[in-house]
Design a protein that fits this description.
7-stranded mixed sheet; 6 helices; two-stranded parallel sheet; about 220 residues; 9 strands; alpha/beta
Length: about 220
Amino acid sequence: MIALLVRFVLGPLARALYRPEVHGVENVPLSGPVLLAANHRAALDTGVITFATPRQVKFLGKAEYFAGKGLKGRALAGFLGGLGYVPVERGNAQAGLAALEAARKVLDAGGVFAIYPEGTRSLDGRLHRGHTGVAALALATGAKVVPVALTGTEKLQPGGAKIPRLAKIGITFGKPLDFSRYEGQDYAPAIRRSVTDEVMYAILEISGQEYVDTYHKRPSEGVA
C-alpha cells in the first residue's frame, strides 16, 4: 500500500511541485532486469530517481533505518520500503557482499535496481572513479545498464536544510549498455574494471561533469 502511495500519489505531487526536466526516459527498458547507474549529487537523488523512472526501482538502505521501534520506527521503515529501499548492513567486507547479493536478487527477479558507482555522493561536484560493483552485478545477471545523470539536486537541501527547497533539477537517462559480450567472464578483475569505466564514461557524457580518475573518499559519519 505504501509503495502504491509513493508511486501514484507522492510521485505525481513531487513532479508537479518541482517540475524536473526528464530526458531519455524511453531508454529505460519496460521489462527485464535493469541496472540504473547514476552520478550522486545529493541525499535526495534516490527520491528523484524513484519519481522519474517508469518502473519501480530498488535501492540499498542502511539496515538501522529499518530497526526503529514503536509507531514512528514502523512508519519510517514502511515509508523507506515504499520508496524502494532494501535494508542491508554496512561498514565491512561481509556487508559489501550482502549488499551485492541483495541487489542481485532484485535483478534476477527481473526488477530494476539503482546504484551509485562512485560509492558516495560527490562533495566537489565532479564525477569520480567508479567502484566495480556495478560491473559485477551487470555481468552476473545480464542486466542492461542505463547510465543516469542528475543535475541540480544538490540545491534542494543547501546547508543541510530540513525541508527541501524549490530548485531547477534534471535527470537524463542514457542509452542502455549491453555487456553480454563478456558472458562467463564476470569474475575477471580486468573485465570488471573495463565495464565499470565504460559505464562511468557514459555517465560523464550525459552529465557534463569534470571527471576525476580517483575514488571519492566517503564523507564523515553524519553526512548523507
